[in-house]
Amino acid sequence: MRTTAILNLKGGVAKTVTTAAMADILAIDHKKRVLVIDGDPQGNLSQYFGVEAQEGTSTLDLLQGTHEAVYSDWVSPARPEECIAIIPADMRLIAADVDALQHGRCDLGAMEELRRAIQEDADSGDPESVAASYDYLLIDCPPSFSATSTAALTAADDVVIPLRLDSFSTRGMAELAAQVDNMRRINPRLRVAGVLVTQYQRTDEEKAALRFLREQTVLPVFRYTIRHSGRVSASTYASVPLVKFSPWCGATRDYRAFVQEYMAQGGGLDHGKA
After folding, report:
1. Which CATH number fits the domain that encloses residue 236?
2. What is the pLDDT of residue 169?
3. Residue 216 belongs to what domain range?
4. What pLDDT does residue 120 have?
5. Would 132 be classed as within a structural domain?
6. Whole-model pTM?
7. What is the 3-state secondary structure (H, E, C) of 111-180?
């Protein structure tokens, strides 16, 4: 199972949209079994999939260790017909940071334990366990280096970094690269799969920024960019996968091409710069 954290320390760069698009395309186009973890207290990914964070089945419960990490008992179906499941979140997830700072109760290894449990089922040879496991685990991280982000990077094989081409976002790349590199002391598997440029409008300024981004050596950059499209936000209002809501819009085609590139990379052990 490949585990990927979708992370950027800046908001408004399409982290949640990218997580949702990846899950939908992996499941619908490629028939993969996908588990997503909503790691953002805003809970937008949970809202998109129409799943509320209930006691015992939320990301907060996972990090606080209030329930055993028997994922089949408390993972919630998101789109069962497409084999997408979710561990949802809401504003209560802020308590994970409070616990980590004040009480030391937040289990930063909880997502890694969950990943191992799923992998053990997949490797067990038991047909029922294998059928209930997942091919991909995608973690939608908050726009901060929080307890949830730390837990996600502890478990992840690699990181996808959505990025909007403005000076504020691009200036933060070196810091983000350093944070990921520091996490490799805890998780040697961890690699950066690549920076994914989102909401791309092909203005002269953005073309120049993209050239600069590709020329810098701090982080790898995906070949494909995601064009700006009003159909993306419309699909989130409708809570309908973009690939079904607007299958031929530019952003849909771009996300499909990006997912193909992402899948071709393999896992974190096989590629990427630190």
Report:
1. 3.40.50.300
2. 66
3. 2-264
4. 85
5. yes
6. 0.92
7. HHHHHHHHHHHHHCCCHHHHHHCCCEEEEECCCCCCHHHHHHHHHCCEEEEEEECCHHHHHCHHHHHHHH
